[in-house]
């Protein structure tokens, strides 16, 4: 019987050290590896090319996403750049209207300088995606649920459209994690992660990943680019992220339960115009989310009736929710995205994003209640 998800999360890539019997995997800090003169190097040569601790993490990531191969990167952005840099001049990438601000920035500011065409489309609208792809497409980028509006895109539908037009589909799965959603099973070719978030899980380690459905020439090309650009993940970071994998399923279950309680509370609050949380039956993407996710995640955003000033005021008044960027740690975070994102922002001025942590849900609700007044 194949091990189930929580078992893989604890054991994949984390086998005891064969040399010492240490149950907790060692961290190999060596930058270089011995090889016989005149002979090509064996498994490892040089830390930037590949290193044993990074490889353990990659084994875990591939197992958890159900992929054939995973590549760890120094950050989520390094993984995004590596995937987008496979595009050549004249090719087109379709990116979602609502997505991580760095993805949008790379697509709008970097890719066009290399002659790559960028089409920005509402990926929750399959007809709009079909229309955009019918003009020619090499890569379709998806992010669901999306940052910061928590929009849900039909990943199986997007994969079908991409493949019908001979394109690859990449899905940023950072908000869901494979504990809740496995895009490769829905037809995606590559899953992207900022492991800085839920995989690390403690707001203390930066990292990114690409997980490939197939161990093919495309994956090999991206792996070679990682070596040449030096975007390798450092061993200590790989080790911390591997440790984070062990508790990912347990943390996600509590994250989701807390977020659901917080979302229900916010829905009934007079100061709030709109709660963006796919777990609410009134959310535009609820039905699709219920179909393609095991649970609805712990990210949500709210739009205040009082606009910009009211949004900033809430973020200023919370005591347990810390005003900081990022997400996925044990501590709850709050942030006014429009001011945090700067020039590339498309976040509504009245929007505040919440990363619901692992504190007691009643305390989180009481904190938001006093901040909302
Ligand atoms: C944080 C984030 C990224 C970027 O990852 P870094 O590790 O910060 O480079 C990409 N996508 C999403 C959805 C994110 O939240």
**CATH fold name of the largest domain, please?**
Aspartate Aminotransferase, domain 2
In the CATH hierarchy, what is the class of the largest domain? Alpha Beta
Number of domains in the coordinates?
2
Question: What structural class is derived from the secondary structure elements?
Answer: alpha/beta
Walk across the major sheet and give the strand order.
Answer: 1-7-6-5-4-2-3
Number of separate helices: 12
Mean pLDDT: 97
Q: Pick out the low-confidence regions.
A: none
Major pleated sheet: 7 strands, mixed
Number of distinct beta strands:
12
Topology of this structure?
Blueprint: H1 5-11, H2 52-65, E1 69-73, H3 76-84, E2 92-96, H4 101-110, E3 117-121, H5 126-133, E4 139-143, H6 155-164, E5 168-172, E6 190-194, E7 208-212, H7 217-229, H8 235-267, E8 272-276, H9 286-292, E9 299-304, H10 307-317, E10 322-323, E11 333-336, H11 337-341, E12 351-355, H12 361-372
Helix pairs in contact: 1-8, 2-8, 3-4, 5-6, 8-12, 10-12
The structure holds pyridoxal-5'-phosphate (PLP).
